[in-house]
Amino acid sequence: MARYRLRFVLQEFDLPRGVTVIGRSLDCHLTIEDPLVSRRHARIVVTEAGAQIEDLGSRNGVKVNGAAIKQTTLLRNGDRLRIGTQELVLSRVDEAGRAHSRTTGQLRLCANCRQPYPREMLACPSCEATEQTDEETLTATGPSSPQRWTMQLFVEALERALRLSRLEDAERVAERATTQVEEAIADGGPIDRQALASLGAQVVATSLATGDPSWSLWVIEIVGRCGLVPTAELLERLAEVGVLHPDDLRKPIADLAIRLRAEAHGAPGELLARIARLEEIGRELEAQRMATPNWR
Description:
Layout: E1 3-7, E2 12-15, E3 18-23, E4 30-31, E5 42-47, E6 50-55, E7 62-64, E8 67-68, E9 73-74, E10 80-83, E11 86-93, E12 107-110, E13 116-118, E14 132-133, H1 146-163, H2 167-187, H3 193-210, H4 214-226, H5 232-244, H6 246-262, H7 269-290
Parallel strand pairs: 3-4
Antiparallel strand pairs: 1-2, 1-11, 3-5, 5-6, 6-9, 7-8, 7-10, 10-11, 12-13, 12-14
């Protein structure tokens, strides 16, 4: 009988014959510490007929290859399972491959051909390249970059948490997301600007929901460091937070507008229009402060 494994953040989890329960509880066979994962979220059943997954009535659901499942679903080799903000990849291991099994925690990812191979090898057996990268996990597939895929997971998690008014969960997800962005910037690699803009809009939405302007201040600081002109959606959300917290956002927004305007030589008209809107927001916040009694 074929055997199955789940790849999960540079690790592999063997699926024994029978039932494997996945959830946040320590009583589960596979525990995922994620605020959007239910205590008993899903179960995978392995039989001679194959492996199938079932949602155990979780609050946030289970997706297989991007589609939410409504009933027990038969799994195939390479299927991507999304539970909370986490992605797991199912792999089928035939009996003949038993001797070659190992955990992905011992694998490198080739920077040239993107194939995983054992860490102790000096060169990639597929293309013989010696350059390696350990920064990316083995969970992202398809045309999107791993960074974009990860940020999109955070965006979806924040959207759901805010929609359900689970503000503590939203702040935990926002904290994880901002930490990951900070680490990516510190590593010196390229930042997916489109994904960052989408994430920034949701982090600012967290400010609106929680009344905490610090999330918006982080977004303003990060887009400035990356030289990113805020999208129209992000601009309007910052304007909303600014109305609620003019003292906190007035100067950071004004400083960002000055910085972006100075770097905007030869920029397309659409970008210039968004910079102008940012400047307008700054003036509106200044006017609001001036109109406030006892302002100094």
